[in-house]
């Protein structure tokens, strides 16, 4: 009996002794509920003809009308394929660069130089999208843009890449790589730092070259992180960087640059079609979830690494 | 362990729920307070006799106050502007301004209306595009109040305005005759014929050319601009004969120029024909016009930067060569390519060009311009609508308009005898430039969001110098616009054949605006493709597929809804 009560008291005290942890948990939980779960309530306007005056639940119910409109829209095929192509290519293109950078920084003997390189490649990440795009437009400007000035030196005519539908994807993806590589390398560097030095020493004793060490020690040790990151990014394929696309967009390159999110912006904000754009947004999220689950399932089968 | 976590998360959830419940309670009690004051209003009306006699200042001997929500347009600060301070002294009413950034204005209005947490007055509702349909919805919810009686009891100037021009009442009332919003009145002569083209007359002079009057002459002028050293800086290759910019007021390429081929309003691509609305961007004549634009592009007369550069970029390019302008001509509603320089003085407004059939034409926007519908509403939260009506009524008078122009001797002066106005009659006043060290420099008036009245008399009564290029005047561009517009007015469509703001039925409103955006986007894009050659305007196949695409997008449904609304307008 005595023992039991004693145990109970301990139990309670133990629970209370963690109160700081629970307190720390509180803000994110509140945040999630208010900003992530509560808005789900508003999703119903995708099935209604929403008018702000009538409110979420008061607006008339129209079922799948907005989805039908979107699927039968002239724009639908182009929007979806533009979105998927842009998202997929930039996802694939953005994977190898940070890995290569991280491996070379990790293998570099000149620690100071490696640190400097890391810092310099990391810096572009902090440039805001608006500034980045104006840098790009300045660089590619027909009049006095660096790109065309150099072409002029080489005796070539100036070209307006910004208005060329074929150039939109390379511009978008290359500027993305320039901006994101340094940042992306950090997580790989962190996992490379966790590799036991014993492995390297053993490899060195066995006479492994630096390339062999990278091939057999470094790469396998960061592979799980690579896969996990790739899977997580698949969820965002369809949410291609909206701001950057919108800022780089003009009437001339619409055929490749018009993606779902810019269309939602034009229709939803531009002409106040809240319900229609919510329906498209919901479709967007569903496709994202499906993609994520598919890739996750595939990766589980193929590499035995997965999110869940 | 698991159980414990579950229990704790349950406690957390409950805490959160209770807290959100509490905040919910806070809101309800607030609204009920609002309701209470709303109810009290009737009782207070008896005591509203604190107001002085109608038409006298101050409005009340006791200090009064009410709140106005307003979007931040431009850089002026309504809370500190001259008119705010001076009018507060004059009326003994101080305004509690709720200034909302312009880009979140739409959301803010929606939120305020949905939550019931209302300011007394909302100004700039026209920016929110409050359609008559939406207005009625707000009214039915009891969020905004009917103003007929309020106007009747508390207005002298606005009532007179409506008496003088019955069209105003027709435009601001609902079908049953009730009025829920006050308009701004801005008689803007040049806005009515705003699909204009500017041309560099200095270049014409340099090359010894006449002002073109037909589309063929215009083509030859562009050619001369391109081939010769039109700006006289020694380099014959830096001239850009014709450039438009992406976005802006009537900067479309198929606006001004298309009218030499067929009537074209580049905003809607609709026209009235035999009392019905038709779509003009699919006709054979329109195709001829696009062929012309395509020819200009192929021959390097039309700059490819027209589709990517925005106004600011183009403005910088045009002044990048010192006194030598870069642009020969550009379509726009008003001068934009000058900055602080005098480059704009090189340009004249090109009169409408005659086509092969010898006819020139241009759209008439009179029906959608003069009355800024839905400028200001009074909400149910307002304690004293009478006071608010009296407060705003002053600005519907000529005296009130001058008051908002600024201080006599600083922002304006009385015209001297013999000084002529825009209309060639004796002028009333002349605008002056506020000194740079004045505390109110650049911050005189509330924005246009607070209803104003720019009458014809006010607009045209300002002193207009004989030469708009005169360096001593501040309103040169306006004088140029006024005079340049004469040639447009002469050939413009009649008001009877112009399109008013269409009041679409509420159940069709969302389909309508979606169709409108999609069709417009597609048409814009196809036009650019035809001009630049990625679609071939000379190929019947490309042209037919353009028309089929438009049909598939619902052009017919769009026209049907438009036509129904138009017939409703005609029968009103």
Mean pLDDT of chain B: 85
- Biggest sheet architecture of chain B: 6 strands, mixed
Number of strands of chain B: 14
Q: What name does the CATH topology of chain A carry?
A: MetI-like fold
Multimeric status of the protein: heterodimer
Q: Any idea of the CATH class of chain A?
A: Mainly Alpha
Radius of gyration of chain B from CA coordinates? 27 Å
* N-to-C CA distance of chain A: 44 Å
CATH architectural type of the largest domain in chain B? 3-Layer(aba) Sandwich
Mean pLDDT of chain A: 86
Number of helices of chain B: 20
- CA-based gyration radius of chain A: 26 Å
Domain module count of chain A: 1
The number of helical elements of chain A comes to: 16
The geometry of chain B reads as: globular
What is the N-to-C order of secondary-structure elements of chain A (H for helix, E for strand)?
HHHHHHHHHHHHHHHH
Largest interface: A-B, 38 and 43 residues
Biased composition (Polar residues) (chain B): 26-36
Signal peptide (chain B): 1-25
Pfam family, one (chain B): SBP_bac_1
Region (Disordered) (chain B): 25-45
Describe it for me?
The complex is a heterodimer of chains A (308) and B (572). Chain A has 308 residues and is an all-alpha fold. Chain A has a single domain (64-303), classed as MetI-like fold (Orthogonal Bundle), CATH 1.10.3720.10. Helix content of chain A is 73%, strand content 0%. Chain A is globular and about 75 Å long. Chain A starts with a helix and ends in a 5-residue tail after the last helix. Chain B folds into 3 domains: 51-188 and 369-481, D-Maltodextrin-Binding Protein, domain 2 (3-Layer(aba) Sandwich), CATH 3.40.190.10; 196-361, Periplasmic binding protein-like II (D-Maltodextrin-Binding Protein, domain 2, 3-Layer(aba) Sandwich), CATH 3.40.190; 502-571. A 6-stranded mixed β-sheet of chain B has the order 2-1-3-11-4-14. In chain B, strands 6-9-5-10 form a 4-stranded mixed β-sheet. Chain B has a two-stranded antiparallel ribbon with strand order 7-8. In chain B, helix 5 crosses helix 14 (385-393), helix 6 (157-164) crosses helix 7 and helix 11 crosses helix 18 (506-532). Chain A: It is found in: Cell membrane.
């Amino acid at each position: 009996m005595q023992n039991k009560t004693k145990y109970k008291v301990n139990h309670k005290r133990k629970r209370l002794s963690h109160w700081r942890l629970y307190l720390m948990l509180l803000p994110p939980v509140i945040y999630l509920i208010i900003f992530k779960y509560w808005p789900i309530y508003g999703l119903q306007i995708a099935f209604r003809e929403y008018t702000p005056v009538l409110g979420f639940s008061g607006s008339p119910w129209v079922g799948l009308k907005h989805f039908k409109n979107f699927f039968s829209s002239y724009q639908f095929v182009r929007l979806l394929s533009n979105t998927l192509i842009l998202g997929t290519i930039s996802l694939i293109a953005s994977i190898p660069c940070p890995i290569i950078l991280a491996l070379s920084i990790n293998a570099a003997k000149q620690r100071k130089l490696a640190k400097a390189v890391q810092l310099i490649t990391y810096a572009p990440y902090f440039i805001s999208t608006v500034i980045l795009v104006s840098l790009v437009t300045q660089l590619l400007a027909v009049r006095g843009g660096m790109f065309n000035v150099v072409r002029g030196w080489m005796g070539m005519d100036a070209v307006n890449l910004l208005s060329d539908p074929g150039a939109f994807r390379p511009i978008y993806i290359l500027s993305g790589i320039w901006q994101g590589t340094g940042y992306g390398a950090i997580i790989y560097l962190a996992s490379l730092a966790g590799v036991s030095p014993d492995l390297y020493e053993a490899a060195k004793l066995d006479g492994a070259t630096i390339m062999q060490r990278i091939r057999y020690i470094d790469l396998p040790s960061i592979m799980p992180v690579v896969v996990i990151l790739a899977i997580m990014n698949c969820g965002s394929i369809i949410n291609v960087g909206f701001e950057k696309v919108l800022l780089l967009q003009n009437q001339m390159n619409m055929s490749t640059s018009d993606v779902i999110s810019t269309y939602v912006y034009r229709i939803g904000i531009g002409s106040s079609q809240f319900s229609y754009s919510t329906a498209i947004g919901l479709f967007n999220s569903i496709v994202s979830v499906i993609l994520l689950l598919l890739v996750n399932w595939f990766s589980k089968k193929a590499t035995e690494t997965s999110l869940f | 362990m698991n159980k414990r976590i579950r229990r704790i998360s349950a406690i957390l959830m409950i805490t959160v729920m209770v807290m959100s419940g509490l905040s919910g309670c806070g809101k309800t009690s607030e609204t009920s307070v609002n309701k209470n004051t709303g109810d009290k209003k009737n009782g207070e009306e008896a005591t509203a006799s604190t107001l002085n006699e109608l038409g006298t200042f101050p409005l009340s001997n006791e200090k009064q106050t009410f709140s106005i929500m307003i979007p931040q347009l431009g850089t002026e600060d309504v809370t500190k502007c001259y008119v705010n301070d001076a009018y507060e002294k004059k009326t003994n009413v101080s305004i509690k301004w709720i200034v909302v950034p312009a880009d979140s204005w739409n959301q803010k209005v929606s939120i305020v209306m949905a939550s019931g947490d209302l300011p007394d007055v909302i100004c700039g509702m026209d920016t929110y595009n409050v359609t008559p349909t939406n207005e009625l919805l707000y009214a039915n919810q009891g969020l905004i109040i009917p103003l007929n009686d309020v106007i009747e009891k508390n207005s002298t100037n606005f009532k007179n305005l409506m008496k003088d021009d019955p069209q105003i009442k027709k435009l601001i009332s609902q079908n049953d005759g009730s009025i829920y919003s006050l308009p701004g009145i801005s008689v803007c002569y040049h806005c009515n014929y705003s699909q204009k083209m500017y041309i560099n007359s200095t270049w014409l002079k340099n090359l010894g050319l006449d002002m073109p009057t037909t589309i063929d002459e215009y083509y030859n002028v562009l050619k001369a601009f391109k081939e010769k050293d039109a700006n006289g800086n020694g380099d014959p290759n830096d001239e850009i004969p014709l450039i438009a910019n992406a976005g802006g007021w009537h900067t479309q390429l198929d606006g001004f120029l298309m009218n030499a081929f067929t009537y074209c309003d580049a905003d809607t691509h609709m026209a009235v024909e035999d009392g019905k609305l038709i779509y003009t961007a699919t006709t054979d004549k329109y195709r001829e016009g696009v062929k012309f634009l395509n020819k200009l592009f192929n021959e390097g007369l039309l700059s490819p930067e027209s589709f990517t550069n925005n106004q600011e970029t183009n403005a910088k390019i045009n002044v990048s060569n010192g006194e030598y302008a870069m642009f020969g001509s550009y379509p726009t509603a008003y001068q934009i390519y000058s900055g602080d320089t005098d480059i704009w003085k090189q340009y004249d407004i090109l009169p409408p060009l005659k086509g092969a059939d010898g006819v020139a034409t241009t759209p008439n926007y009179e029906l959608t311009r003069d009355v800024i519908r839905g400028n200001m509403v009074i909400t149910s939260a307002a304690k004293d609508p009478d006071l608010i009506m009296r407060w705003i009524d002053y600005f519907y008078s000529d005296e009130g308009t001058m008051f908002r122009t600024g201080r006599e001797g600083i922002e304006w002066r009385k015209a001297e005898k013999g000084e002529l106005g825009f209309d060639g009659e004796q002028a009333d006043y002349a605008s002056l430039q506020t000194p740079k060290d004045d505390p109110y420099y650049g911050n005189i008036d509330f924005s246009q969001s607070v209803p104003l009245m720019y009458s014809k008399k006010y607009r045209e009564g300002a002193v207009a110098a004989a030469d708009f290029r005169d360096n001593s005047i501040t309103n040169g561009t306006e004088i140029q616009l006024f005079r340049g517009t004469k040639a447009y007015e002469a050939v413009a469509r009649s008001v009877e054949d112009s399109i008013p703001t269409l009041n679409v039925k509420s159940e069709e409103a969302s389909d309508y605006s979606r169709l409108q955006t999609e069709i417009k986007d597609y048409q814009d894009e196809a036009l650019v493709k035809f001009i630049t050659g990625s679609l071939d305007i000379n190929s019947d196949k490309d042209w037919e597929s353009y028309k089929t695409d438009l049909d598939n997008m619902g052009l017919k449904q769009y026209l049907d809804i438009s036509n129904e609304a138009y017939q409703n307008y005609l029968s009103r």
